[in-house]
Amino acid sequence: MNQANLIGRLTKDIDLRYTTSQMAIGRFTLAINRKLTKEKRQEAEANNQPTADFINCIAFGKTAETLSNYVGKGNQLGIEGHIQTGSYENKEGQRIYTTDVIVDGFTFIDSRQDTQSSTDSDFIPVNNDDIPF
């Protein structure tokens, strides 16, 4: 079974491109915190060691377009998908191996609208005497 479920924050806005046949492809990276105790996290940070993993993800079609429209850098996102490996040869003739998570589904944990600051003018004052319970 090849299944991946991840929750993380986008490291930058989604790179949305289209193929010649107009298929949307969205590439992004999720930063996922490692499960560390507070002490281990502080120790790792003090020694300039990583405390998060950076997972490359790819979404296709409407999924890519929807994600691109509603989430951006810093937003938290949950994804369901599967792992895909591949390789290619770079300009120097070296074999480069890749590992990506192909997005099959997603859950918005917060989105661009959630991160916009609200002001006091967004709230309507309520008289507690008007509430029937």
Shape assignment: globular
- Provide the spatial order of strands within the biggest beta sheet: 1-3-4-6-5
Strand element count: 6
Unreliable residue stretches: none
Order of secondary-structure elements: EEEHEHEEH
Distance between the termini: 51 Å
Provide a quick synopsis of the model.
The protein has 133 residues and is α+β, with helices and mostly antiparallel strands. It contains 3 helices and 6 strands, in the order βββαβαββα. The longest helix has 10 residues, at 61-70.
What does this protein look like?
The chain has 133 residues and is an alpha+beta fold. It has one domain: Beta Barrel (OB fold (Dihydrolipoamide Acetyltransferase, E2P)), CATH 2.40.50. 17% of the residues lie in helices and 44% in strands. The protein contains three helices and six strands. Strands 1-3-4-6-5 form a five-stranded mixed β-barrel.
